[in-house]
Amino acid sequence: MTTAIVFWSGTGNTEAMAKxxxxxxxxxxxxxxxxxxxxxxxxxxxxYEKFAFGCPSMGAEELEESEFEPFFAAIENKLAGKKVALFxxxxxxxxxxxxxxxxxxxxxxxxxxxxxFIQQEAPDDAACKEFGAAFAEF
Length: 138
Ligand SMILES: Cc1cc2nc3c(=O)[nH]c(=O)nc-3n(C[C@H](O)[C@H](O)[C@H](O)COP(=O)(O)O)c2cc1C
What we know:
The protein has helices at 13-27, 68-75, 96-107, 125-136, and strands at residues 3-7, 32-36, 50-54, 83-90, 111-112, 117-120. By secondary structure, it is of the alpha/beta class.
């Protein structure tokens, strides 16, 4: 089953996480397709059954408001039954945005993998690969 990885990243930290997760999935022989959120629309939900969505903590513990939040709002009614992992980078907070996002994704009926995977600022590459490899088994 191919995993679609869809992310937004302003300064590259969440992008680095996305690439590490992709590498971890591929290490386990799982197929993965990487997209920035600007490259896709809600139609991508009709093409894949397994997703990793990435967005850093922006605003005040929120999803990025101009691209990622509108995308996520548009797919929320298509998430039921999909396998989903959430990830993203943060700065000074305590991960509140991810807890909110996990709850929201579960409420939409998705089959959500584990805890949201968060990394402070620049991610640890090995941890990202490990997360991707573990998600490959989900
Ligand atoms: C406008 C703005 C708002 C932010 N708000 C938060 C926040 O509420 N909580 C937090 O922990 N970090 C916050 N950050 C820090 C980013 O989440 C952090 O720098 C992250 O690594 C950025 O990821 P990226 O490189 O993928 O864009 C904010 C950064 C910016 C630029």
